[in-house]
Structure prediction request, 195 residues.
Amino acid sequence: MGFKAVVIGASAGGIDVLKNILSKLPSNFVLPIIIVLHMKDDKHSNISEYFRNHCNLEVKEAENYMQIKKSEVYFAPPNYHILVEKNETLTLSVEDKVNYSRPSIDVLFETAADVYGKDLIGIILSGANGDGSEGLLEINKRGGLCIVQDPKTAEMDKMPIEAINKVDTDYILTVDGIAEALIEYTNLKRNGGAR
Prediction:
């Protein structure tokens, strides 16, 4: 009945949104969070180091065969697809780009849906392309929870709009609302309601 993992996809405009969401999660947030954030190929990423300063959870850059653990956040490294395996480990791939992207949100979401089924939460945030909508559809088909950032609050609304058009999403939420929903669905109580 309880959820087992969260996957998040973000692209242009996604860094500040992710910082906002992750900073609101308490240190006893139990689910692992696996994230694809599109970055420019020529930019060396210290993104996991950046988010360590804005998050109460352990933040790591994903490595091959890394075991997925509770209360940890994993970022796909630059220029690698990140996949969830049946034994709940992460693997990396340099296969062709999907939707012009590597890492691809679709690849992460589809492999995670295969492993976690209805026990998965999928979230699409700000972005300027359509990556993630096919993967979110797979999560939806398996009965997982699908959340999309309200396009009106996104710096780049193409990715949320594509996801909403393709998927019968459970929630379309503000950034604060996404953080509140994550806390609610892991049965952690906070003062006040979702905005």
Notes: Residues 5-185 form a domain with the Rossmann fold fold (CATH 3.40.50.180).
